[in-house]
Specification:
This protein has helices spanning 2-39, 42-53, 66-73, 96-104, 106-112, and strands at 59-62, 77-82, 89-94. It starts with a helix and ends with a helix. It is elongated. It is of the alpha+beta class.
């Protein structure tokens, strides 16, 4: 019986560590993304505002553009497919988690979602 309780406590302890690490990781990622979103220049901010206003649309962007690469690295956009009409472009979609993150953060909401 003692061994069973010890194993159960160990399992609960491991689960608590897992959840704490997961929470810390997510907070760290969101803080990093927020830092980058606040440092964007005006042109990048305007592009992201336009993308956020049309969040349901698929967005054709140039694949080799620095802004496109930055948005992909920050997981703001994800690539859906290559554009058949223009091989230099690809079709991208907004990461809904980023929209939710911006919507919940008052500072980012004022910058990117103000009307």
């Amino acid at each position: 019986m003692n061994h069973l309780i010890t194993i159960l406590l160990f399992f609960i302890f491991i689960l608590l560590i897992f959840f704490a690490m997961d929470r810390f990781y997510k907070n760290n990622i969101y803080n990093q993304i927020k830092k980058y979103l606040l440092k964007f220049n005006n042109f990048e901010k305007e592009i992201l505002k336009t993308i956020l206003k049309n969040k349901e649309q698929k967005i054709p962007l140039e694949q080799n553009s620095e802004i496109t690469k930055k948005f992909i690295d920050l997981q703001i956009l994800f690539k859906l497919k290559n554009d058949e009409n223009n091989p230099l472009n690809a079709i991208y979609s907004l990461n809904s988690k980023i929209f939710d993150f911006i919507h919940k953060d008052n500072e980012l909401k004022k910058i990117y979602l103000k009307k």
